[in-house]
Amino acid sequence: MANILLVDDERSIRDMLEIAFRKEGHRVESAGSAAAALEKLHTRIFDLVISDIKMPQASGLDLLRQIRETYPEILVILITAHGTTGTAHEAGQLGAFAYLEKTHELIDDLKFTVDRALETSKIRAENITLKRELEKNRGLGSIVGQSPQMKPVFDLILSVAPTTSTVLILGESGTGKELVAKAIHAHSPRAKAPFVSINCSAFQETLLESELFGYMKGSFTGATNNKKGLFEYASGGTIFLDEIAETSLPMQVKLLRALQERKIRPVGGNEEIEIDVRVVAATNRDLQQMIHEKEFREDLYYRISVIPVEIPPLRKRPSDISLLAFHFLEQFNRQMGKGLQGISGEALRLLENYNWPGNVRELENAIERAVALEKGTEIVPDSLPERVVKGPAISLDRVGPLEFPEDGLDLQHQVEVIERSLIEAALDRSHGVRTRAAELLRMSYRSFRHYAKKHGL
């Protein structure tokens, strides 16, 4: 329910719209001129103004200018019986939310546009809330989340950080395992010492050994000097072994010995070096299954998984999508020197409806692309990747079983069955709100009404 101000010098138009919007549950007041409208705006709070353009003395465009200067948070919809391209362009330049012509479908068009406008106001308010929520999340570095699924992760990070125990971080690719490792280090007594990260899958076995343990001059071709390994560089701090499941079995034996003995031997060296380092490992694979298939050592598994931390995939914490999207918007605004103010309601719904197989990393890339391409003041669907806009293809199994009889079938009838099923599903998802159902089906409200009527919905 919203507070709407109707402005039109024709009493019949005002009365007609007043009745229509009161039936929708809105609080409505009206004014017969721009001057009368401004008086009401000075004394009452309105969410939305619907104004005719052609009025005596001051026009709707004049009223729009005044509202933009004095009440920039109020959205304005302009209507006219004498529309021109020039007037529409000027209305857009002045900041009108929409520009509609007075046709026989004016009421339906206005209802749909008002729903969109109120959704935009809601998104603006949510953007402000997201900024506040982001400030609350600064305590764990760049890990952003407020969903119930992430609370146990945050609690475990803060519990395990002060200890010296080895931690194994589990989660799909792109969920932010290294951010969790950095948060554990940052909240530990070792925070002032180095945090050293290595992706074990990026090196062949011999190169990984020399990277981790170092090497002596002459130990292999190209070893012209002695070199410290990453375990030594991380002395007093934390070493993060990302994708540890990709190490070979011989390398796993060497890692196990380093963790058990707290000593390493550089490649080509004779003496062992004591190390003081905390180990945090991570993988996106099922180590239990790998143990069963003899691809990962069971003794190493128990050594690194003293405290397991599992990060849920983004699809299982959808309430974090908007918060993460706004976080990345702020980040790339700073990096690119842009000033985007937020994310449009339609774009945010597309982000929230997408499955994000690449998790947080994929969302980050999508927002980076949108910020780079966007020329307006907020991210809109056109700036998002096509896969996000179109969404995943729906399986026919979700619509109904597909059985092809031996004697053939009526294709048109089958198409209508699927149409009806999808329209019912969209209405169910939108809790019966038809404008929202139309958006979910990526069609105009007018088309949705046609199909709903066709199927008796």
- List low-pLDDT spans: 395-400
| CATH class division of the largest domain | Alpha Beta
Label the overall shape. elongated
What is CATH's topology name of the largest domain?
Rossmann fold
The largest sheet is: 5 strands, parallel
- Assess the beta-strand content as a share of residues: 5-15%
Strand tally is 16
Can you tell me the number of structural domains?
4
Going by helix content, strand content and strand pairing, the class is alpha/beta
The helix content is: 40-55%
Distance between the termini: 25 Å
Number of helices: 20
Mean pLDDT: 87
CATH architecture group name of the largest domain: 3-Layer(aba) Sandwich
Describe, in plain words, how this protein is organized in 3D.
The strands form five sheets. Strands 2-1-3-4-5 form a five-stranded parallel beta sheet, sandwiched between helices. Strands 7-10-13-6-14 form a five-stranded parallel beta sheet. The protein has a two-stranded antiparallel sheet with strand order 8-9. Strand 4, helix 4 and strand 5 form a beta-alpha-beta unit. It is 48% helix and 13% strand. It has 20 helices and 16 strands. It is elongated, with a radius of gyration of 30 Å. Helix 19 crosses helix 20 (445-454). By secondary structure, it is an alpha/beta fold. The two termini are 25 Å apart. It has four domains: 3-129, Rossmann fold, CATH 3.40.50.2300; 157-311, Rossmann fold (3-Layer(aba) Sandwich); 315-390, Helicase, Ruva Protein, domain 3 (Orthogonal Bundle), CATH 1.10.8.60; 400-454.
